[in-house]
């Protein structure tokens, strides 16, 4: 039996949740309160790095989103979410990596900056530029394709699609990216995407959470440093 330790708003856990749904696999969701539960000994025994997602397939444990996605694709290859064509596979991997390394940090910067200040700080402006640069790259990469790999929905959509439709909420309209806009709207019609969609209340709570989470993390990590230094 597959078990997924997750949090509904988590940008790292949602692609795994979505993959399980797209592959129509039976699984159990176990919610982790990221307000501090991830630092408790019980969860640290599952992931010593204190973050979601964590996946158990029977007694086999996998941490880190991209590793989990690769595992699920290899273990449960049908329906396939990775192309075999070399160029298409490269496009998918680029989207996955750029989403986690560029777009996601930019979104965190936009969330925190927008919530904490009425003025655009240097960090907030950098986050905007970083997000726009990423969207420009994705727009060119997608071009006139239906999906990043062509006609096949893949892990590129799984990873990026849960984030890009939120950009207008952060002050970056998708009308400047017509291919991405159509692509995003196409994804949102899928039953799997609708199932994991955050309600307006959940999205609002998540933005408030992002404002205070750095303080929580600093406090909890200070506690962990003390605990580790005493071992």
TrEMBL record:
It comes from the Bacteria. The keyword Transferase applies. Keywords: Transferase. PROSITE patterns: GST_CTER (PS50405), GST_NTER (PS50404). Residues 85-209 form the GST C-terminal domain. GO terms for biological process: glutathione metabolic process; L-phenylalanine catabolic process. Pfam families: GST_C, GST_N_3. This is Glutathione S-transferase domain protein.
């Amino acid at each position: 039996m597959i078990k997924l330790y997750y949090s509904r708003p988590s940008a790292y856990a949602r692609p795994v949740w979505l993959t399980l749904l797209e592959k129509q696999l039976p699984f159990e969701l176990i919610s982790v309160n990221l307000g501090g539960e991830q630092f408790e000994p019980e969860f640290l025994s599952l992931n010593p790095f204190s973050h979601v997602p964590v996946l158990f397939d029977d007694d086999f444990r996998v941490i880190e989103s991209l590793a989990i996605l690769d595992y699920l694709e290899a273990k449960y290859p049908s329906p396939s979410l990775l192309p075999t064509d070399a160029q298409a596979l490269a496009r998918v991997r680029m989207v996955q990596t750029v989403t986690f390394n560029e777009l996601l940090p930019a979104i965190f910067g936009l969330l925190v900056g927008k919530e904490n200040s009425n003025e655009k700080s240097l960090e907030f402006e950098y986050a905007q530029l970083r997000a726009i640069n990423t969207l420009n790259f994705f727009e060119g990469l997608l071009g006139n394709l239906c999906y990043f790999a062509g006609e096949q929905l893949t892990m590129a959509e799984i990873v990026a699609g849960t984030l890009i439709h939120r950009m207008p909420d952060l002050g970056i309209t998708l009308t400047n990216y017509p291919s991405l806009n159509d692509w995003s709207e196409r994804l949102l019609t899928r039953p799997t995407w609708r199932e994991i969609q955050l309600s307006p209340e959940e999205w609002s709570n998540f933005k408030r959470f992002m404002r205070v989470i750095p303080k929580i993390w600093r406090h909890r990590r200070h506690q962990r440093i003390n605990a580790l230094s005493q071992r």
